[in-house]
Design a protein that fits this description.
This protein is α+β, with helices and mostly antiparallel strands and 392 residues long. The chain is 32% helix and 28% strand. Strand 20 and strand 21 form a beta hairpin. The longest helix is centred in the C-terminal third of the chain and has 31 residues. The strands form 5 sheets. It has an 8-stranded mixed sheet, with helices on both faces. Helix 1 packs parallel to helix 4, helix 2 packs parallel to helix 8 and helix 9 runs antiparallel to helix 10. The protein starts with 12 loop residues before the first strand and ends with a helix. Bound molecules: flavin-adenine dinucleotide.
């Protein structure tokens, strides 16, 4: 595959013998979320100077919880954070699939991708994962600037939204699904698409019997219960939007979520009746997806995470892919050769894998929309576990 890119390498860091290795010594990471913070940590570990520009002045995260499959734990382990994530989350052995009334269809144990000392999966609140990552980045010596974005990028030269400027060997666009870096460098034509589904989520007390991901197939989509801590879980419903459309008035969120879960029995029915009461606890999102054609770089700018490949959450791999991108990128740009060679290697290692996750997630969503109750949901989920277990 031929990629447009830079022909020379100007950066590099000194290795133990005083020899310059790698194609970058100064990097700007735009976006202080899961992918950007992972890239910052991986680059700092290799001795690269990193500035981070995060648009949110509070540097907070919104949302509920996140599933961390084995490959996510393996990637976090490379950053020294897997053990803390498990300590602060809930270790899980596998998934169970049910009919809407609670009848068990399949029990899928997952294997220990991250090694025998780690569980197959972990659930954690987004805020706890964010604190782990931000604490590690603060300790890493990276320069984090909050309430800041990029207004213009010209080669490695950046003009920031506060008027300041900087020169970098590499600019990493880790600014999420609505990436500004992508718009500035790759054009406004690449836009996320609505997948036809919405996702409802709410934190609930963990039912003691729920020790893994429990999914329930309903008429319009799937409900699930995912542990996030010994005392906490989240209840989710991914489905076609309610008759009124994707937007539900803020003061009708709890009532509408309860209504949309009406057909479900078992733990889902019990949680619905006991805990979906306050509108402010309910998070409703339209599910969007985007996959940028390769290469995900132009000149000195590269996209990672949701900026390059955002998927529906059907196989819980979005954040895992973002952390893996970060590790592979840092490894390649601090390895041998020019920046273009490094970014070509990054693409070779990342594109097909991320595309697979996007395709599988899209397929499961389509089956749900088409009400393909005969489709092999468990088989495709298991296949995604096997493929993402492959080394990166
Ligand atoms: C409903 C739902 C459930 C999900 N569940 C899971 C799950 O269980 N497991 C899983 O692995 N994944 C899940 N995902 C996907 C996961 O959340 C994303 O893939 C992951 O957060 C991507 O990380 P990122 O760093 O690329 O982007 P983000 O996490 O979105 O981070 C982007 C960062 O960039 C900042 N930013 C945005 N614009 C700018 C700008 N212009 N300038 C500077 N900074 C900017 C943002 O404030 C943010 O800090 C789910 C997604 C959805 C929608």
């Amino acid at each position: 595959m031929a990629y447009i890119g830079v022909a020379v390498s100007v950066g590099g860091v000194q290795n133990g013998e005083g020899r310059f290795v790698g194609s970058v010594s100064r990097v700007l990471v735009v976006g202080g979320g899961i992918g950007g913070l992972s890239a910052t940590l991986a680059l700092r570990r290799a001795g690269v100077e990193v500035d981070v520009a995060e648009i949110n002045p509070e540097w907070s995260v919104y949302g509920v919880g996140i599933i961390q499959p084995g490959n996510a734990l393996r990637a976090l382990d490379a950053l020294g954070l897997a053990k803390d994530a498990i300590d602060q989350g809930f270790a899980m052995e596998g998934s169970r699939f049910h009919l809407a009334d609670g009848t068990l269809l399949a029990d899928l144990p997952f294997h220990r991708v991250a090694g025998p000392e780690y569980p197959p999966m972990n659930g954690i609140t987004r805020s706890r994962l964010h604190v782990l990552l931000t604490d590690a980045v603060k300790a890493s010596g990276a320069d984090v600037r909050l309430g800041l974005t990029v207004d213009a990028i010209d080669g490695g030269h950046v003009t920031f939204s506060d008027g300041s400027e900087g020169d970098y060997d590499l600019i990493v666009g880790a600014d999420g699904i609505h990436s500004r870096v992508r718009a500035l460098v790759f054009g406004e034509d690449i836009q996320p698409e609505y997948t036809g589904q919405v996702c409802w989520r709410i934190n609930v007390p963990r039912p003691p019997e729920v020790e893994g991901i429990w999914m329930f197939a309903g008429t319009n989509g799937k409900a699930g219960c995912v542990p996030l801590a010994p005392d906490l879980a989240y209840l989710l419903l991914i489905e076609e939007p309610p008759p009124g459309g994707e937007r539900v008035p803020d003061d009708e969120l709890a009532a509408t979520m309860r209504e949309r879960l009406a057909e479900f029995g078992g733990v889902i029915g019990e949680l619905r009746d006991a805990h979906i009461n306050r509108d402010e606890d309910v998070v409703l999102r339209s599910v969007m997806a985007v996959l940028v054609d390769p290469p995900w770089y132009r000149d000195r700018v590269v996209l990672i995470g949701d900026a390059a490949h955002a998927t529906s959450p059907h196989v819980g791999q979005g954040a895992a892919m973002a952390v893996e991108d970060a590790l592979v990128l840092a490894e390649e740009v601090t390895g041998e050769g020019t920046l273009q060679e490094a970014l070509d290697r990054f693409m070779e290692r990342r594109y097909e894998r991320c595309k697979f996750v996007c395709d599988v997630s899209r397929q499961i969503g389509r089956w749900e929309i088409e009400r393909r109750h005969d489709a092999d949901f468990a088989g495709l989920t298991q296949q995604s576990v096997m493929v993402t277990a492959e080394p990166i």
